[in-house]
Amino acid sequence: MKTITTPVGKIAVLYDGLQIEYNAVELCKDDILYPEISGRFKIEFNYESDNQCHSLSCVIGMTHTAVRGAESGENLEAFALYHDETKLTIGAEGFSYYVDGKRISENGYDYDVTCIDNGVEYRILPITESKAFTFGIAWITPYTEDNDCQTWYAADPTLDFGKTLHHRENDT
């Protein structure tokens, strides 16, 4: 199975912990928000509810040490990774949290999303009726203090993904 290959590793999509094939769409760069982006893709997953809990993760396979962490924003969970001169961001749309065991979801999301050790994960719930889940992936080489926010914008599924360069099925 072929995957998106980035300078810091390959992108994999996992459904309930098992690697699945995916379709990646290469996206154009925005001249204003992220003009220096080196690579930018979206991965879409169509889902048909079975009223069960599931996990859908987009992860980076790494064989080296890197600085990583969460870079979330409004309706965005984002995982960031820095290695050598490259910064990579994986983003997913959603916003929910728990208070005293009660689920709070802003903007009506019927699923949860969270950062995990090597990416982001949608947590599909028995109540989930959403039919499509999107991951944004972007990286920049070299990154600097002035341009590293560009991956955050470029990987945000809540922003208009704009024009695509071309469709790639398991061949990126």
Quick description:
With 172 residues, the protein is mainly beta. The chain is built from 1 helix and 15 strands. It has a 7-stranded antiparallel sheet. Strands 1, 2, 3, 6, 12 and 13 form a 6-stranded antiparallel sheet that branches. It has a two-stranded antiparallel sheet with strand order 10-11.
Q: Overview of this structure, please?
A:
- It contains 1 helix and 15 strands, in the order ββββββββββββββαβ.
- By secondary structure, it is mostly beta strands.
- The longest helix is centred in the C-terminal third of the chain and has 5 residues, at 150-154.
- The strands form 3 sheets. Strands 7-8-9-14-5-4-15 form a 7-stranded antiparallel beta sheet. Strands 1, 2, 3, 6, 12 and 13 form a 6-stranded antiparallel beta sheet that branches. The protein has a two-stranded antiparallel ribbon with strand order 10-11.
- Mean pLDDT is 87; it is low at 165-172.
- The chain has one domain (5-169).
Draw up the topology in text.
Layout: E1 5-6, E2 9-15, E3 18-20, E4 23-27, E5 39-46, E6 54-61, E7 67-70, E8 76-83, E9 86-93, E10 96-99, E11 102-105, E12 111-116, E13 119-124, E14 132-140, H1 150-154, E15 164-169
Antiparallel strand pairs: 1-2, 2-3, 2-6, 4-5, 4-15, 5-14, 6-13, 7-8, 8-9, 9-14, 10-11, 12-13
Quaternary: single chain
- What's the order of the H and E elements? EEEEEEEEEEEEEEHE
SS-based class: mainly beta
- Total separate domains: 1
Number of strands: 15
The largest sheet, given as strand count, sense and whether it forms a barrel, is: 7 strands, antiparallel
Mean pLDDT: 87
Principal-axis shape equals globular
Give the strand content: over 45%
Distance from N terminus to C terminus (CA atoms, Å) equals 11 Å
Fraction in helix: under 10%
Low-confidence stretches: 165-172
The spatial strand order of the largest sheet comes to 7-8-9-14-5-4-15
The Cα radius of gyration reads 15 Å
How many helices? The count is: 1
